[in-house]
Amino acid sequence: MPMINFTNPLTLLIVTLIYILILILAKETKKSAIAVIMLFGFIALLIVHLIMYLTGNSLIADVLSDINYTMVFDLIFVLLSFIAYLWVDDIEAKVKKKKSIDNSLDWFWKKV
Fold first, then answer.
1. Nearest to 18 by CA among 43, 41, 1, 2
2. pTM to 2 decimals?
3. How far apart are CA 31 and CA 59, in angstroms?
4. What phi, psi does 30 have (nearest 5°)?
5. Helices (H) and strands (E) in the chain, counts
6. Per-residue pLDDT reduced to its tens digit, 18-50
7. How many CB atoms lie within 10 A of CB 88?
8. Which of 13, 21, 30 is nearest to 85 (CA)?
9. What whole-number distance in Å separates Cα of residue 30 and Cα of residue 42?
């Protein structure tokens, strides 16, 4: 079963560039739905890689190690996508003058 291997630097660079472009698109259009689609995409990749890891008993150790590192990068992209979603959602709420129930990023920016 083919997989998106984030241990390959070229693949990681391409995915990072696509992530940045989608984030810019979401920010410019002020639509948090675009960021949600990106978040669900990375969650789906994480689930696929987890299934590959759990069903890959006969795989060699190098492939299992690559899947482990790939799942770490999946988790990093899920975290970044979630923070990007909160950011774009806050921008969208300010533009549409919606009352935000909670200031989603205040907890993050106060800690930084």
1. 41
2. 0.82
3. 42
4. 55, 45
5. 4, 0
6. 999 999 999 999 988 999 999 999 999 999 989
7. 24
8. 30
9. 21
